[in-house]
Amino acid sequence: MAGIGRVAFLGTGAFGVPLLASIASEADELLVVSQPDRPAGRRLQLRATPVAEFAREAGATVLTPRRLRSVEATHAIRDFAPDGLVLVAYGQMVPRELLGLADRQPLNVHPSLLPRHRGAAPVAGTIMSGDPDGGVTLMVMTPELDAGPIVEQWSVPLSGRETTPELESRLADLAADVVPGVLEQWAAGPIAVREQDHGDATYVHQFTREDGWIDWHRAAPEIDRQVRALQPWPGAWSTIDGRRLHIRRARPVTGVDDVPIGALLPGDPPCVACGVGALALEVVQAEGRAAMPADAWRHGLDREHVLLGAGRPAEPAG
Length: 318
Known about the structure:
Methionyl-tRNA Fmet Formyltransferase, Chain A, domain 2, 8 helices, six-stranded antiparallel beta sheet, alpha/beta, about 25% strand, Rossmann fold, elongated, seven-stranded mixed beta sheet
């Protein structure tokens, strides 16, 4: 890839790291802007974001403002005088004054086929919706969320068994392969774009723990998509005896008639009766325990008849 000038790269999660690695070797100067280090793990030690960690190891200049629209952050990016901005899963809206800072169009790499799945969790949204294809969109950033004109799109067929981490990793590698070639054109001059069809836009909010609650009255294929989409956070979960049971891996199967919804069926693998069909449990994680094969968990129960989801645990205060 030919030199692409002075680039300000805005990113946070692991999705942006493969592309950053490509850009770091070709940019004449690189400023990486990421979210601040945050407490993580049981000891709540400060941990850098995946993008910031890679950038520091690569020797790049790293800026981690708490708010991108702060005066300090704006001045630091302006002082860097970038030729262009590239954003990849940064996590904050870019203020208008930064969008117009450089001569080139500011670009955003988004892991869905826009206008589908705008917002905070596009990969999970792709899986949750049962889309036959996922993909990466390169677009021009505008003040509106994920609504800018499209530069290029690349699609990949889905098997229907992907989890969010698996599909995100696949799309990250795809972006690292295909986006750099477009950045060469971007460095050479204005690039052609096409407007999104805003009438077809869908949105995916940031998921919370409550979104993981499994309603066993739904069809098994829908619950299966929920299980795969919500890994690793917040996870899809039910309850047994008032305590959480996370379903880490499962698959939809044919159900049986005249069985209460949520009932755990006898035999291996353990299956849960759904509104339509049943969900075969493969890996589960009981509250306070490590993940384990579902058949081992089932054999450890002290009774034969089990109804999942009969009650929801109270949320911790605060």
